[in-house]
Amino acid sequence: MTAIEQANAALDQEERRHPALQFLGRLFREKPFGAAAGVLFLIFVFAGLFADVLAPYGFNEINPIQRLKAPSWAHLFGTDNLGRDLFSRCLYGARLSVIIGFSAAFLATVISVLIGALTGYIGGRFDLITQRFVDAYMSFPELVILIAVVSVVGPGMPQIIGVLSLAFGIAGSRIIRGAVVSVREHMYVHASQSIGASTSRILWRHILPNIMPPIIVLFTTRVGAVILVESGLSFLGLGVPPPAPTWGGLLSGSGRTYMFQGPWLALAPGLCLTVVVYATNVFGDALRDLLDPRMRGSR
Amino acid sequence: MTTAAKPLLSVRNLVTRFGRGRGAVTAVDDVSFDVGVGETVAIVGESGSGKSVTALSILRLIPSPPGRIESGQILFEGTDLTKLSEREIMEIRGNRIAMIFQEPMSSLNPVLTVGLQVAEPINVHRRKPWDAALGTAKQLLGRVRMSDTESRIRAYPHQFSGGMRQRAMIAMALACEPRLIIADEPTTALDVTVQAQILDLLKDLAQGSRCSLILITHDLGVVARYADRVVVMYAGRVVEQAPAHELYANPRHPYTRGLMASVPRLDGDTSKRLVPIDGQPPNLARLPAGCAFAPRCRQATELCHRERPALTETGPQHQTACWLEAPAHV
User: What is the distance in angstroms between the Cα of B107 and the nearest Cα belonging to chain A?
Assistant: First the structure.
């Protein structure tokens, strides 16, 4: 076999593999750091989904004898002032973060795509007016709006998901709009207009598949951002109310009060939060680099 | 017009303008022409002469704002396309009138298979489900002389060469058996050898189904070979219009003559240098008061600079907008 034949055979093999597998291969080869972040992200999702199986104790199992114990093999992250196992509480916190993070980020992305695609494609006065509302919204500090809205609708999981998805959805619409505006001017969009395709058909079949990369990246980075903001709200007592063990709640409750007697009470949820948010951002960045053809070849 | 039967398409005094106020540009200015059933009409002119805007105006695809059809009629099978609602014109697009764009490289969607795109007009207008539409798409690819259609319909545009993509675009245009195909410089982006194949194919298929063709081009060689009638445009206006053989035998407008002199001919004197047209096309936002071609015209008189010549009969089915040809002037 000559060298050329070998190279061709290797290429064939590459071709024959499923596109998703090819993509995973590229992720690990070109973005090892992003791949590691992706693995961390998967561990987090897994931990959240199977919290009830993985947790050695219940999240509200009180054991006064074991209160404020430092991390040990029995209690990996130590215990809090009521003797509750912090590792179990962090796992259940991960579950809440997974639920809120994914559902709010998903809804936010849907809202962003709806607003962004419509304003970007239709353009004109509709775009001008809608985007001025988006401008007005974005000129406020995010947390201020959220605190104001949550204090009206009250704390609780559905409210938090609704408020966060709306807030992030409006802000993210600008990114989708930009992508749509650049795709809209492509010849194939004009061509699909020339065959009599309706606006909804053009948006759904011709534009949406072409803006998938920014949508995927928007979604992954939003997961991290939503988790962070939700923790912030929970820390302020405006998130999911206790006894649900959210990471923000853990930080503000036992974490803040007993920081000096048991620093692990603040460190454990804080580190969970930091690692997960950092991992989602790095993973999202790596995805963007791989999915965006213009970034190909750069590290 | 002396065409015995009623024309399929009749553009009457079309004016298309972009922008408002002082910066407004009249891209198409008082353009009229007819396209008969089964006829091939070429619209010739240099870049910015308004030929593409004319084509886009017919299908009402002018981006609005800033563009708009200001006045005039576009009669297609008796109905005025400028009066139709958005929904009604959508029924015409791709169904009764199809369009082929100049860039086959970018006029196919990179993320959809060729089959789906060729089948789309059938899905849109005939309301056929996708699997039936894909079957028709396979036949259409066969009609544009593509081999191995079974695997081609599953291929993506990047797996096609430029010529194959343009064939796919032709197949897409033919999908709903339109009465009129508008081809906007269909071969400018292709190799010379492929150009002839594509145009032969287009002409054959159009003739086979008695479909009319508007061929927009700046290539006079293409015009001579494929067109029945020629409309020459300059600065948004029709300056000359005649049957193709008549125009070549007897070009009247100095601009048309200039165009012909600037193209090399095999049967002419090949030792002579080509004669270019001096100067540049005018700025459409600031057109001269008289004939738009006057500043570049070697025979221009004082009258040419002052007043705009009207399109007048200068021969059998031959009209020219030039003072030098106007009987009163002589």
Answer: 4
